[in-house]
Structure of AB hydrolase-1 domain-containing protein:
Amino acid sequence: MLPLLTSAGHNATAIELAASGVDPQQVDTVRTISQYTQPLMDYLSALPPTEKVVLVAHSYGGFAVAQAMEILPGRISVAVFVTAFMPGPAYPSATLFREVFLL
C-alpha cells in the first residue's frame, strides 16, 4: 500500500507499532495498549501543531488508531479501519485489548 500511495504523490509513512515489524520489543513485554501504541503516539506528537493525518488501520492496528483518536483528535483528519479491530462506545479499546491480548 505504501508504494502505491507514494507513487501517487501522497506523503505516506508506515508506523511500526510496539513488538511489530522492525520494532525490537518482544511481544511478551507489551502489556498495555499504551505501550503497543507508543510509536504512533510519538509520531503524531512530533507533527507540527496544525498538521493533520489520515490514519489507516489493519488488524491490531485498529487499537492504535482508536487510542490516537481519543488522545490526539486534533492531529487526525480521518481514520480508516480496514479489517481492523474497531472499538466503540459500548466496547472501549482497553476492554477489547484486554480480551484479545491477555486471555
In short: Helices lie at 2-7, 33-46, 61-71, 93-101. The mean pLDDT is 88. The beta strands are 53-59, 76-84. The CA atoms of residues 15 and 40 lie 6 Å apart.
